[in-house]
Design a protein that fits this description.
Largest sheet: 5 strands, antiparallel
Strand content: 35-45%
Distance between the termini: 77 Å
Strand order of the largest sheet: 5-6-3-8-9
Number of helices: 2
Number of strands: 9
CATH topology: Immunoglobulin-like
Order of helices and strands: HEEEHEEEEEE
Oligomer: single chain
CATH class: Mainly Beta
Shape: elongated
Length: 172
């Protein structure tokens, strides 16, 4: 009976706890949510022709600030083909504003949207040079991110067929 029990109490800064809880929440979201693809629509499917690519998808997760969309083109698109892009646009309500902050690294476009609401999102990337030596692409990848953490993702968003002469769009 004469034994006393000792308790050790650890104190963590509130900022550290908030950061840890946010990370746990984001990891939970990232494993729960997906992007539902509707289509990839290039204006032209002719090989070695610059064209606009539209990506329409549905996301079931909103990101209220610091939202980004990552669009990864398959290996058939050369890095130089993607550096010719002149503008990126997006739509969440029918309007098509030009995105002021976007970058391309190798085959991935990072597009800042500030916020993403649950629902349909359209991304249009202008002036992409279609591959020269391929008739079919591999899968595109589309992701939404919050603070560089993937929240929703689809790694088999779609593929495109290319023709050597002017052709019409065909979904594979």
């Amino acid at each position: 009976m004469g034994e006393s029990q000792k308790f050790i109490i650890y104190l963590f800064p509130s900022k550290m706890i908030k950061s840890l809880l946010l990370t746990i929440f984001l990891v939970f979201l990232a494993h729960q949510q997906t992007i539902t693809p509707y289509y990839i629509l290039p204006v032209q499917t002719t090989q070695n022709v610059a064209t606009a690519y539209s990506f329409l998808f549905y996301t079931d997760t909103s990101i209220t600030n610091n939202a980004w969309v990552a669009v990864t083109f398959p290996f058939e698109f050369s890095a130089t083909a993607l550096t010719q892009v002149s503008r990126v646009r997006y739509s969440v309500t029918g309007s098509m504003p030009i995105v002021t902050k976007w970058s391309v690294n190798q085959s991935q476009f990072l597009i800042q949207l500030n916020q993403i609401a649950i629902g349909n999102v359209t991304i249009v990337i202008d002036n992409v040079l279609n591959p020269t030596d391929y008739t079919t692409s591999s899968y595109f990848v589309v992701q939404t991110l919050f603070q560089n953490v993937v929240i929703t993702s689809n790694s088999q968003f779609g593929r495109i067929s290319f023709t050597s002469t002017p052709g019409t769009f065909r979904i594979i």
